[in-house]
């Protein structure tokens, strides 16, 4: 579906916000006086659709991709591109797979003293970064297999564009956009009951993937505490 088709479905079939009979809402920008007849501008709906798409990506990880990281000699920590959602696996230039590890698998001395050929990577999803271990002694390119977010943000200026999302996900995805619409803090839009209802519809369609949570539980269960020392 195109962005215009998604906005039309959201506005007409879910929100019932067309401004009345004969209103050509699809020609309005947020600066047009005609937008005053609408509870939500087209730009607002597009913004909510973009967030709904990102929420689908976070929930079910629909898109896998390849990500190349240029590793530099002497540099352990790297900030990832904002679209990187989760690192799945990694390989060195010679094809050897790197092991995914946790920061708790190493001591302070390990990070301060160990150098050599790359053995593992330690993702930090809070900061969207990764640490390479041990400290590299040569420049090389590490190839990561990743889950990612959309690379393109939809805009009302290009309403013929289509989201990077499987078509059978697109209508159910609009439930999150509707949830956000009814959380808008204005007298004629704020409706927590409706917002929660649409969030429930979305949750049923897109439950959080269990892959990451299961891996995390396996790593942390019954883990002995290690102390690095000085």
Attribute tags:
230 residues; alpha+beta; 2 domains; 6 helices; elongated; disordered C terminus
Write the topology of this structure.
Blueprint: H1 3-15, H2 42-60, E1 64-71, E2 77-79, E3 84-91, E4 97-100, H3 108-113, E5 120-124, E6 129-133, E7 140-148, H4 167-181, H5 192-205, H6 211-220
Describe the protein's architecture and organization.
- The protein contains 6 helices and 7 strands; from the N terminus they run H-H-E-E-E-E-H-E-E-E-H-H-H.
- The N and C termini lie far apart (59 Å).
- The protein has helices spanning 3-15, 42-60, 108-113, 167-181, 192-205, 211-220; strands at residues 64-71, 77-79, 84-91, 97-100, 120-124, 129-133, 140-148.
- It is 33% helix and 18% strand.
- The protein folds into 2 domains: 3-61 and 152-212, no CATH class; 64-148, no CATH class.
- With 230 residues, the chain is of the alpha+beta class.
- Helix 1 crosses helix 2 (42-60), helix 1 packs across helix 4 and helix 2 packs across helix 4 (167-181).
- It has a 7-stranded mixed beta sheet with strand order 1-7-3-4-5-6-2, with no helix packed on it.
């Amino acid at each position: 579906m195109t962005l215009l088709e998604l906005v039309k479905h959201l506005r007409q079939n879910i929100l019932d916000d067309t401004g009345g009979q004969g209103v050509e809402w699809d020609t309005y920008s947020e600066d047009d006086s005609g937008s005053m007849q609408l509870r939500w501008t087209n730009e607002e709906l597009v913004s909510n659709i973009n967030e709904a798409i990102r929420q689908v990506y976070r929930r079910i990880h629909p898109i896998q991709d390849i990500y190349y990281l240029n590793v530099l000699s002497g540099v352990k920590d790297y900030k990832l591109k904002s679209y990187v959602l989760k690192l799945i696996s990694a390989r060195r230039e010679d094809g050897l797979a790197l092991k995914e590890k946790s920061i708790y698998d190493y001591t302070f001395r390990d990070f301060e003293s160990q150098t050599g050929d790359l053995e593992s990577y330690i993702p930090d999803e809070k900061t969207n970064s990764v640490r390479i271990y041990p400290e590299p002694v040569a420049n090389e390119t590490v190839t990561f297999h990743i889950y990612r977010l959309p690379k393109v943000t939809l805009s009302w200026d290009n309403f013929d564009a289509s989201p990077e999302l499987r078509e059978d996900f697109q209508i159910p995805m609009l439930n999150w956009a509707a949830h956000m619409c009814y959380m808008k803090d204005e007298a004629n839009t704020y409706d927590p009951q409706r917002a929660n209802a649409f969030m429930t519809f979305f949750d049923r369609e897109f439950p959080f993937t269990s892959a990451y949570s299961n891996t995390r539980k396996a790593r942390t269960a019954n883990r002995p505490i290690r102390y690095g020392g000085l």
